[in-house]
Design a protein that fits this description.
This protein is mostly helical. It is 22% helix and 0% strand. It has a domain at 1-35. The chain is built from one helix and no strands.
Length: 54
């Protein structure tokens, strides 16, 4: 059987991929608090520093 994504215990099919509601809530809190983040590389704005003509 697969392991819980948070604590490593066996998964409960009711809470898959977690073992309990508690672990599911821990994961949700990590998303809401910014604990999980996808690294991004910002590209230079080609219009930066130039005045736009109207």
């Amino acid at each position: 059987m697969s392991k819980c994504a948070i604590c490593g215990k066996e998964q409960d099919p009711k809470f898959k991929p977690f073992c309990s509601k508690r672990c599911a809530d821990v994961d949700l809190n990590r998303w809401f608090s910014g604990g999980y983040a996808i690294p991004a590389v910002e590209e230079d704005d080609p219009d930066q520093g130039e005045e736009r003509e109207q």
